[in-house]
Design a protein that fits this description.
With 298 residues, this protein is α/β, with parallel strands linked by helices. The protein folds into 2 domains: 9-264, Spore Coat Polysaccharide Biosynthesis Protein SpsA, Chain A (Alpha-Beta Complex); 265-298, no CATH class. The protein has 11 helices and 13 strands. The model has no long low-confidence stretch (mean pLDDT 90).
């Protein structure tokens, strides 16, 4: 395998308005919505760190100061917990602070996901990097990101994550046209379409919010004009990369079959809260019997 630069950086776009969760997100970033007792964004940062990416850049926007505060030290709170001898809560508070090296840059204009990724160019430089969307939570026992990094290092191109969805639901996602790669457990992407009608979709393989990208994507994004919704779409840039040759070109995909929650969708968000709570030793034993009793009443 050709020697390639390691993937060490993660980019987390977090500038969206979260309108699907109004009025809860009127004054609070959608990324700070609690999933049990941690904000959704902390699960995403933890996933990046578990995959070895402890250099994290968040792309934020106006009214997102709470994100920076959450990952910052709070000396007065830490001192109060220490004085009370509440070491467990002190550990939980420090968990977010100690995750990794977190940086922030503001997306001044909301021009789409492609533009948000382009905002990371100066920080990322000429290295491959991961992009994790805050709306998607991946099960803590899954190794999707690690597998995608492996494929990127092997191919030198960009790697996306795909999941099979109901064909009638594909219009809510980017959709991939793929072909098998002989002898490997990943696929090559021939084309991408952003939110196609079900009748025009090339497959039922939906793009979900995990990417490991070649730095060549920045050059393509700089030449990519507004697409669907008048925004600069990352999908459009990847569609271009898929048809290019040379180092850093080509797009590949890992088809994910594990646990994933879309916390931008109210029902999926509630499922994430319930399932993650049930899996915990401190909450599951009390919650599961109540859920069975509740379900029996419907």
């Amino acid at each position: 395998m050709t020697h390639r630069k390691r993937v060490t950086k993660a980019v987390i776009p977090a500038a969206g308005l979260g309108t699907r969760f109004l009025p809860a997100t009127k004054a609070m970033p959608k990324e700070m919505l609690p999933v049990v007792d941690r904000p959704a964004i902390q699960y995403v940062v933890s996933e990046a760190v578990r995959a070895g990416l402890d250099d994290v850049l968040m792309i934020t926007g106006r009214s997102k100061r709470a994100l920076e505060d959450h990952f910052d030290r709070v000396p007065s709170l830490e001192a109060a917990l220490a004085d009370k001898g509440d070491t467990r809560k002190l550990e939980l508070v420090n968990e977010a602070t100690d995750l990794g090296d977190i940086h922030y840059v503001r997306q001044i204009d909301a021009k789409g996901l492609g533009h948000a990724v382009l905002c990371a160019k100066r920080h990322v430089g000429d290295e491959p990097f991961a992009v994790l969307l805050g709306d998607d939570l991946i099960g803590e026992d899954e190794h999707l990101l690690e597998e995608m990094i492996r494929v990127q290092q092997e191919t030198g191109g960009s790697v996306i994550a795909l999941m099979e969805v109901d064909p009638e639901a594909i219009s809510a996602y980017g959709c991939a046209d793929v072909e098998r790669v002989d002898g490997d457990d990943y696929v090559r992407v021939k084309g991408l379409v952003e939110k196609p009608e079900a009748s025009e979709a090339p497959s039922n393989l939906a793009v979900i919010g995990r990417y490991v990208l070649s730095p060549r994507v920045f050059d393509v994004l700089e030449e990519t004009g507004p697409g669907r919704g008048g925004e600069i779409q990352l999908t459009d840039a990847l569609e271009s990369l898929a048809g290019m040759d040379g180092e850093g070109a080509g797009v590949y995909a890992v088809v994910f079959k594990g646990s994933r929650y879309d916390t931008g969708d109210k029902v999926s968000y509630l499922k994430a809260v319930v399932e993650l709570a049930c899996a915990r030793h401190d909450l599951g034993p009390a919650l599961k019997p109540w859920l069975k009793e509740l379900a029996g009443g419907f």
